[in-house]
């Protein structure tokens, strides 16, 4: 084999390797057909009615938000499980929950999520919706459920009621953001500026201690561990930013820095 033939063969082999890697890495990211009924007008009506974050955006940013919602629906399967009947509104609310925490990060997408499973009600650790002790509203899957999220339909809908500072769907998407660096530890290294990591960890641990000793009005569940703290206060930040700023100004400033800004409510 002469030199020119060698280089041709080597080039073909390299091309084949790159092609195989591409297929295995990206072949499963085909677009999911979104029904024609999912017009921007329909989604905008749902968001205007249900999502305060969207209502407080300027008109041009609302269009960007709609584009991001559609992108999520085109790349993430949403499946009804255990008898749930998932409505168009449910799908838009799930996509909105995914969009809100990352709205100010133009190039960030959920590479670690392929499907959202919607249960009709709360479930237990064995995924039963029939047990008396069921109290799980949502979870990010692991093992056989890796790259999947499970949401209670009831909790999803309740999360967009104005009187509550809780939002289960946003909570679970924040866990995915936290998980993107390999550890679910309350430190979202892909989002948080390096200079903020140390003061964030100090403030997080200080507030967790206050929660555990009953000296804080932040929901008790936030004191479970660092990951749950980050998810709970993120819910608070996006649902009731003005109240968080008033009651916990330092925590608010740090979250504002991490997320790039909340919309006033």
Automatic annotation (TrEMBL):
Ranges annotated as spanning the membrane: 6-24
State the UniProt keywords alphabetically: Membrane, Transmembrane, Transmembrane helix
Record flagged with keyword Amino-acid biosynthesis = no
InterPro entries per record: MetalloPept_cat_dom_sf, MtfA_fam, MtfA_N
Q: Does the keyword Membrane apply?
A: yes
CDD domains the record matches:
Peptidase_M90_mtfA
- Which Pfam families does the protein's record reference? Peptidase_M90
| Protein's name in the database | Zinc-dependent peptidase
Q: Which organism is it from?
A: Sphingobacterium micropteri
């Amino acid at each position: 084999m002469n030199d020119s033939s060698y280089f041709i063969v080597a080039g073909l082999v390299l091309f084949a390797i790159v092609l195989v890697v591409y297929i295995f890495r990206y072949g499963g990211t085909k677009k999911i057909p979104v029904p024609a009924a999912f017009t921007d007008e329909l989604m905008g009506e749902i968001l205007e009615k249900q999502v305060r974050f969207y209502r407080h955006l300027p008109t041009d940013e609302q269009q960007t938000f709609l584009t991001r919602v559609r992108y999520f629906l085109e790349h993430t399967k949403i499946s009804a499980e255990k008898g749930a009947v998932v409505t168009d509104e449910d799908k838009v609310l799930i996509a909105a929950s995914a969009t809100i925490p990352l709205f100010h990060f133009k190039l960030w997408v959920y590479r670690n999520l392929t499907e959202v499973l919607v249960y009709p009600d709360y479930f237990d650790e064995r995924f039963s919706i029939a047990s008396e002790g069921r109290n799980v509203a949502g979870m990010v899957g692991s093992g056989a459920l890796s790259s999947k999220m499970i949401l209670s339909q009831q909790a999803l809908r309740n999360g967009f009621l104005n009187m509550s500072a809780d939002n289960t769907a946003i909570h679970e998407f924040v866990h995915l953001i936290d998980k993107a660096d390999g550890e679910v530890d309350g430190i979202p290294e892909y989002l948080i500026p390096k200079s903020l990591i140390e003061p964030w960890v100090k403030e997080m641990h200080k507030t967790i201690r206050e929660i555990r000793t009953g000296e804080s009005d932040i929901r008790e569940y936030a004191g479970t561990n660092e990951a749950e703290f980050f998810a709970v206060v993120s819910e608070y930040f996006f649902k009731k930013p003005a109240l968080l700023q008033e009651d916990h100004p330092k925590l608010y400033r740090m979250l504002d820095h991490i997320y790039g800004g909340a919309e006033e409510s």
